Amino acid sequence: MQIHGWASDDLGFEPDYNVRAQRLPRFDGADEPYEGGAWVVVAPHTTMTEHVNPDGESELFYIVSGSGELEVAGERRRVGFGDSVFIPPGDSHLLVNDGEEPVVFLSLWWGGKPRHTA
């Protein structure tokens, strides 16, 4: 059994997204389609930077605490505990935390074009 945990002190600031996050390790034996993931925290009264996932990746957000407004491809909806949201490849998205508590979610992404390293 492989377990990965995190605490608030483990979160690092990710300036490209204006959030704090803890990237998930790649577990031994993990097969496709999983490519990556992170625990993400959007601070109160903060907006996650609008972006499009690189290389055609799909993404899922699982909201575990807090609430805010998530915008995907220009459509904005309220999200909170228990919500899961699919973000299709190529769709711009952002999350606005308009509340007093952090929004915490698990992000998983997959399906991007393979990255070539030189």
Question: What does the model show?
Answer:
The chain is mainly beta and 118 residues long. It has one domain (8-110): Jelly Rolls. Helix content is 0%, strand content 47%. Strands 1-2-3-10-5-8 form a six-stranded antiparallel sheet, with no helix packed on it. It has a four-stranded antiparallel sheet with strand order 4-9-6-7, with no helix packed on it. Strand 6 and strand 7 (75-80) form a beta hairpin. The protein starts with 11 loop residues before the first strand and ends in an 8-residue tail after the last strand.
Q: What order do the helices and strands come in, and which of them pair?
A:
Layout: E1 12-14, E2 19-23, E3 34-42, E4 46-47, E5 58-65, E6 67-72, E7 75-80, E8 84-87, E9 93-97, E10 103-110
Antiparallel strand pairs: 1-2, 2-3, 3-10, 4-9, 5-8, 5-10, 6-7, 6-9
Q: How many beta-strand elements?
A: 10
User: Strands across the major sheet, in which order?
Assistant: 1-2-3-10-5-8
Q: Identify low-pLDDT runs.
A: none
Shape label: globular
Query: Helices and strands, in N-to-C order?
Result: EEEEEEEEEE
Task: Kindly report how far apart the N and C termini lie.
Answer: 34 Å
CATH topology: Jelly Rolls
| Whole-number total of structural domains | 1
Percent strand: over 45%
Radius of gyration in whole Å, from Cα? 14 Å
CATH class: Mainly Beta
Task: Compose a concise summary of this entry.
With 118 residues, the protein is mainly β. It contains no helices and ten strands.
